[in-house]
Specification:
Oligomer: homotrimer
Number of helices of chain A: 5
Order of helices and strands of chain A: HHEEEHEHEEEEEEEEEHE
Largest sheet of chain A: 9 strands, mixed
Number of strands of chain A: 14
Helix content of chain A: 10-25%
Shape of chain A: elongated
Largest interface: A-B, 22 and 21 residues
Strand content of chain A: 25-35%
Distance between the termini of chain A: 58 Å
Chain lengths: ~250, ~250, ~250
């Protein structure tokens, strides 16, 4: 893909976000992308190739939101970013179906559209080709069912694990805004039989090997073990439930 | 190596093709290189450091074919590319033995010629140094025994596995041109006791977890499992035999 | 981090040195950094994010030595480079505590200072901001206890393993200068019950699968198995002892 991009635009700057997405894991890819986008230049073109449906009827698409662009399969992997877009782009979003072969490689395989369609289209975008030239406008993009936002119900939150990072930290869908009017020392987090009291400020707030809850670098509640793997110790994986409650004793 | 290249040519654009070649696996490196070259700019300089014989009598070499250059050990890793070159370069190939120390790092180790010889020579090439300046011309490059091209014998092909990719797809030496005048629905592919009928167009043509045969992104017959690993399920690895026959019932 | 850097300095050239440091392994990171620095342009800015104490009282720091800069946590990871600096920089070293938030990202997490502090400070350095602007001068940087340099005591060296590379080669703290006035054929290296005679020039000096001692690409005595893993075969890891003696029979 990098060779294809540099053949079309030799002065492109290419950055790898991750090569550690589990095969076919569209939700994980969506999470990692959404976590990275805000830290990139607003004019960046983001290309995603987690594409288990390559060769099927799923459409190759490009999306423009404000100055940013996104290129990838229409399989939901861009849905979290799309959902977050209005706030950053003023709601002005255009999406097209990449159906103009003149912007693809001459020979398109059925198994690697990242190389044959996404990369050349992204390279043409980087040269200033308007997104409308790459294909027909579409309105009906695939989106994951909007994930129920975690929230307080009386004095309890029932959240879920949405990501395990490479250190084994267990990231939840529970955002830090839910704790703004609470005393963090009174929060109790429970998962898989384990229970920790208090939300700490940093891994270093506990001893090595000790389990803690904290707000991770994505602004979400996270279970972690200092210099260890919470996912391994607790046997947790994506989709598992995490309970938050208050202990006011 | 990147530091060495950028010290000599600060405006070089450097792209990693793969860090996943199994240690010492020259054939796998040759396959991955040959699969990538056609997608890079024609003026690219390709450097290969799969070099189990570093420090022995094996020569460091550079090859120029058309506008493209290749730098690496003379151990056969460049042989597949060399074999494919005439068609793209008009047959005009020059090879030199990298034996001019003025283009190397001042201190050359016996264990890492990638850093000490290949990287600086490649950087000098990128600055316009002619390949002839880097060493004496050589004609007797090491080549792997030319692999018997797979072909139809009566109504059967006996092919072999030449690569397992990181998804566990099993790539063979059977090129798609062998199926141009055949009915793909009638093709039967057998390997390790498994049998699939028909060559599909894409992974998505079958259900999740189902085995299929298709033409992969390298234009070769491939055994795959949708969202799974065919190599693990079938217990296959490089060098294994794959049978293709016709079922005209 | 790359997005942050390119947002501040779009023309920065970014090179990854390693993503294979074991989690929290500060000493391994220090070794890999010290091995790489001399091969980079002298004006390079090196950023290190092996930072188990992120969020604690450990300071974020930047160091200038000659034309080179280093940005990372004050946890000792830069200590080996610092110790090696006087020879290359004429002893002129300045260190600052990164405590000027105007050079950070607007929102700083407690868990990822690499992204929120180190990357933006490094990017500002690359634009010519003087290191003194980034924070107050510090003199009391954390350093590992200076490792006892390996040396001959009578006719014996007692050294230790400081690194296992990804091929399983066992790298020691025994520098090649210790063998300059010795007959390398008479050297005997012993570790974990294994014994090899002679220091070879290259992996290729022995048959496949055979254990050897040689001077590795870092200029240090190394135990290796040609096309195999010495660390696995001998069961060795960092901190293990290696004995060198003479056999003058």
């Amino acid at each position: 893909m990098k060779g294809v991009i540099l053949t079309i635009n030799p002065s492109a700057t290419i950055v790898d976000i991750s090569h550690d997405i589990a095969p076919e894991n569209i939700r994980q890819a969506a999470f990692v992308l959404a976590s990275a986008v805000e830290y990139f230049p607003t004019t960046a073109i983001h290309v995603v190739v987690v594409d288990p449906g390559v060769g099927s009827a799923r459409r190759p698409i490009a999306i423009r939101a404000g100055e940013s662009s996104f290129v990838g399969p229409d399989n939901g992997v861009l849905s979290q970013v799309i959902r977050d877009m209005p706030s950053t782009s003023g709601g002005h979003i255009r999406a097209v179906h990449l159906n103009k072969p003149e912007y693809w490689l001459p020979h398109v395989s059925n198994t690697f559209h990242g190389r044959d369609i996404f990369a050349p289209c992204a390279a043409h975008l980087s040269l200033g080709v308007p997104i409308e030239a790459l294909g027909e406008s579409v309105q009906d993009l695939i989106q994951f069912p909007t994930q129920q936002a975690a929230r307080w119900v009386q004095d309890e939150i029932v959240g879920m694990v949405i990501h395990i990072d490479r250190f084994g930290n267990v990231v939840t869908n529970i955002g830090e805004e839910l704790f703004q009017e609470r005393d963090r020392a009174q929060i109790v987090v429970q998962a898989r039989g384990a229970k920790v009291r208090g939300i700490k400020n940093a891994y270093a707030a506990v001893e090595r090997g000790q389990l803690l809850a904290l707000i991770g670098s994505n602004g979400r509640l996270e279970l972690a073990i200092r210099e260890g793997s919470a996912a391994v110790r607790l046997g947790m994986s994506e989709g598992d439930t995490v309970h938050v409650s208050l202990d006011i004793d």
